[in-house]
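note to self — DONT lose this again. spent like an hour looking for the file last time. sequence + predicted structure for the chain T wanted, 195 res
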Amino acid sequence: MIADFSIPAHHRAYRPASVRKFSRWLLARRGWRIEGDLPAAEKMILAVGPHTSNWDFLVAVTAMLALDMRIYWLGKHSLFRRPLSGLLIRLGGIAVDRSNTTGVAEQIGQRLRNADEMLIAITPEGTRRKVAQLKTGFSRIARAGGCQVLPVTLDFSRREIRLHEPFAPGKDPEADAARVRTVFATATPRHPDNF
């Protein structure tokens, strides 16, 4: 449950109480709960999925606000346009130009290394459509940033956001992607045909 979920002080956003209360009310009204533990690590990549719908983003952001967590997330640069760009940046958005991804993992990894604490959420599918395999950027960023990967699933059948066991990225990003896909397969996405 949300009330029992512990957030380390270094990952708190200290937003207004009204934002937290409204977001908690909204999650509870829709029947969502949060299971698992957030490690106390200062830096981590959250690999979030399965990603098959725009609802994934709305549920995840509502949970972030309800828990008063400071989480950064990567989104395609075309989302960051007026009038929403300011709001998305305040919510932790980092624009990424998918047409030119050269060096992105290293750049984001550098941001992680330079930060005292930072959580970055990434959807390894990279799209809401069905994909044969996950993108490996989350693993390469975690390796470049010297941090662990925490798989997080959004299960629409159980209305559950689950934090799974974190792991250190290996030398083979493809193996890490396969590992995360196996975790994602334990959850029912909003549109199962797209996973």
